[in-house]
Amino acid sequence: MSLDTGHLSALSAIVRYGSFDAAAAHLGVTPSAISQRIKALEERMGTALVYRGQPCTPTDAGTRLARHADDVALMEAHVLRHLRPDEDATPPRLRIAVNADSLATWFVGGLAEIEGLLFDLVIDDQDTSTDWLLRGAVSAAVTAQGQAVSGCLSKPLGALRYIATASPAFMEQWFQDGVTPANLARAPMMTFNAKDKLQHRWITRVTGERLMPPAHQLPSTHAFVDAALAGLGWGMNPLPLVAGHLERGTLRALVPENPLDIELYWQTSRLMAPTLEPLSRAIKQQARRHLVNSSHASVK
Question: Around Cβ 71, how many Cβ atoms within 10 Å?
């Protein structure tokens, strides 16, 4: 089955910009033309591709097809860059799933080394970022799952080290007589969102018990650090973000000899792997600079 590139471009633009009007403005056509293209594509595929709402969102089929359109544009740009190096072209777009802590500590440096490519980043927990690959919604992901998703390649990156940290005042208030199971069960902790299990995993490792402390929910890597500094609670913070605070004493490690190393992997679509090789190489170089040796990382 061959697909009209104009129809695919319309779908991709709707998914990216959230409306038929915005997609039309981006492509330089009328909203009516966009509507006709989507209707023709839906008839061709035999299924709905877009939920008409505010904003418009793709169906599962629309998500896969929009990513396919972006992948085709990326592969075409890769070929044309070698055949027509002097020709100006609209940069293709690549959608990647990455966890917030990697984005805040080491990942951006790899993106910055790549020219002629636009990035669309999806933020999700490292334990569940492979779901985006399974749905066909992204072409690459930073994940804690080493086993390659069907149709993908998986390469180890190293481990992001986390330290359980809190302010000196918080330590004095809640852990004056030590970091015990009883104290950990009472002391407020922080979680990123409902998927975040790092704090619970660390508690079980240190105490051997499954505790359910009271928890604040702060869906921001930097807010985690700020909240720890303010004494709001304790949390697992990436070492690259808190190393300076630990050296200055503005934060303290709850149990210094017990970090938590989370092993990370770079998974890419097998079909896209040759085109993404420069980016994959840059990501792995950044990982070697900032992540710890994965041989001692925790088993996921």
Answer: 21
Residues making up the chain, counted from first to last: 300
Domains 5-67 and 91-300 share a fold: no
pTM: 0.80
Torsion 263-266-270-273 (CA) sign: negative
Q: Are 152 and 71 in contact (CB under 8 A)?
A: no
Angle between helices 60-83 and 5-17 (to 10 degrees): 110
For the cut 70, the answer to whether the pLDDT of residue 159 exceeds it is yes
Peptide bond into 55 cis (omega under 30): yes
Please say if the pLDDT value at position 88 is more than 90. no
**Of 201, 171, 205, 204, which is closest to residue 188 (Cα–Cα)?**
171
Q: CATH number of 91-300: 2.30.40.10, 3.40.50.300, 3.40.190.290, 2.60.130.10?
A: 3.40.190.290
pLDDT of 112 strictly over 70: yes
Percent of the chain topping pLDDT 70 = 93
Segment 267-273 mean pLDDT:
88
CATH 1.10.10.10 fits 5-67, yes or no: yes
24 vs 17: CA distance, rounded Å: 10
Q: Do 285 and 110 contact (CB within 8 A), yes or no?
A: yes
